Amino acid sequence: MLARIDHLRARNDNSVTRPFSIAYKQKIIERLTGKNAESARQVARETGISQETVSRWLREAHSLPVMPQEKPKKKVWTIDEKIRVLAEARKVTGEELTGLLKREGLLLADLEQWRMALDEEGRASKATTKRIRKLERELAHKEKALAEAATLLVLKKKVQHLWEAEDDDTDEESER
User: Fold this and answer.
1) Half-sphere exposure of 173 (CA within 13 A, CB side)
2) pLDDT at 125
3) How far is CA 84 from CA 5, 99, 108, 122, in A?
4) Helices and strands (H and E) in the chain: how many
5) Phi, psi at residue 169, to the nearest 5°?
6) Whole-angstrom Cα distance, residue 111 to residue 44?
7) What is the dihedral of CA 125, 131, 132, 138, to 10 degrees?
8) Which value, in Å, is the radius of gyration of the alpha carbons in the chain?
9) CA–CA separation, 6 vs 12, rounded Å?
10) pLDDT digit string (tens) for 91-142?
11) pTM (2 decimals)?
12) Is 174 helix (H, G, I), strand (E, B) or coil?
């Protein structure tokens, strides 16, 4: 009698379906359809899931609409568009502002970032101009040093050439 109960218990343990997460199912489907696709039989053997279940997941996946993997690219705003939206946003608050942001497809954080950039423009442009001038001075100094080094190399070669020519002349005089 106990053997019979153990047999039923074992049979029930095998027949109980295990819930699988969507992510796990997606990984299995990727293995079946990916670049190096494997057969349902092979995947079933390796995972311990029945081949019927794996095949059913594949059929279900094929019946679903294709979803784009990449996020849509963010809109690139021109300066004129930014100014227009900032001007409109200054006139509204609360729900009207939320509606404006939705209509324009813009996040509040982006709007605030544009606002801060506009407010800091004077200070930021002065600092940027100052930095550019400093870099230009450094570049001019380095170009001057490079030109001097090139001139010294040319002079060195000329002097070397003159010494070699003079050595040739003295060798001829000593031979006479």
Assistant:
1) 6
2) 63
3) 78, 15, 15, 20
4) 8, 0
5) -65, -40
6) 52
7) 170
8) 39
9) 10
10) 988 888 889 989 988 888 888 888 887 776 656 566 777 888 898 999 999 9
11) 0.32
12) helix
How long is the chain? Answer: 176
Tokens of 125: 């442009």
Q: What angle do CA 97, 78, 70 make, to 5 degrees?
A: 80
The chain-wide mean pLDDT, for the chain, equals 79
For residues 108, 113, 115, 116, the Cα torsion angle rounded to the nearest 10 degrees is 140
Tokens at 54, concatenated: 């794996």
Sequential DSSP letters for 39-73: -HHHHHHHHT--HHHHHHHHHHHHHSPP--SSPPP
Output the six-digit token pair for 63: 């019946």
- CA distances to 78, 101, 107, 117, 119 from 93, rounded to whole Å, are 23, 11, 15, 20, 19
pLDDT confidence of residue 69: 61
